[in-house]
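[scheduler] slot 2 assigned
[scheduler] job type: sequence-to-structure, two independent chains
[scheduler] chain ordering preserved from manifest
[runner] begin chain α
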Amino acid sequence: MVQKNKKSSRAPKINAPAAPKRRGRPRAYHPEVALGKALDLFRQGGFAATSLDDLSAATGMNRPSLYGAFGDKRELYIKSYQRYRDDARAATIDIFREEMPIRKRLARIYGVALDIYLSGSSGPRGCFTVMTAASEAVADPDIRAMVLEGLSQLDKAFASCFRRAKDNGELSASADPTALAQLASATIHTIAIRARAGIPRQELEAIVNGAIDVMLGK
């Protein structure tokens, strides 16, 4: 007699579904590092010339990750500009606040500014405000408000310096702190443009020293 095979009582084996592929930001994602990379690109090429592919390659984040972390390209640009302003303020705030002769104060402020404007692995990048944000401000009211706020803050910071210098007898009684502050700010802007154009630091420092002499009446 032929014995029939018994059916197995074991349930058929079902392969577990494959785990979905991870999308979005990598595990090594660090917001401040990525923002710094984006800032470098925008300073070098401006808004229009910097593509999402450029930003993705520089930050190591794909497009969904960039959008998820920073919003669209415009929002990332604005966040980068704010980061630039915060960094510049942090680099100079103590110089504006500490007690020191006005000539020394101005020289130190311009020295830090030149450090910022001449930095860049592929060449001097100048000032974010002057070299790119001012152009975008023409059509974008939010960026325009940031630019105007930054200019106003710089003027006020310089005016405070000249006011103290006048009170300390370092300036003549007829000196106008507000007018001197605008001249000091204008000097910041001109060395930013010239730095981006490739003018050597030694020549930029000569411009700074001449401007300080004019401001201090010497």
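[runner] end chain α
[runner] begin chain β
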Amino acid sequence: MGRAVGGERAVTVYLDTNILVRHLTQDPPESGRRATAFLAKADELHLSDLILAEIVYVMQSVYRVPRPQVAALSRAMIGSRNIVTNDPALLVRTIDVYEQHRLAFADAYLVALAEASAGSAIASFDRGIDKVPGVTRLEPEDAPH
């Protein structure tokens, strides 16, 4: 949960994509400085899996940051002293799959979920998932006409 301030009830603070992207890119500079200062002074900030996925997308697609650098930045966010995630190990594995097997972040997330749950499979038309050993992909069969 969040921290109490001056005897008040604790507030849980959820990070939005734009705060972290502004911090990472310093674009625009004024927003970047404000985001960096906010992150530096915060005690506890929650980063949802969905927001991390959006950050990866924005950094790679909009800012054209190379995949290895996006992966390193993502790992750094997850490991930050004041950033809390629901399942850091799942996200780290997702980032590893995203980086090593060059899958889209969402597909890498599905792989990490399937690996974490014995006997799981992924239903997908995306054959890139087959690059990850030990993961079963199910593809719907052709429907009769």
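[runner] end chain β
[qc] chain β: The chain has six helices and four strands.
[scheduler] slot 2 released
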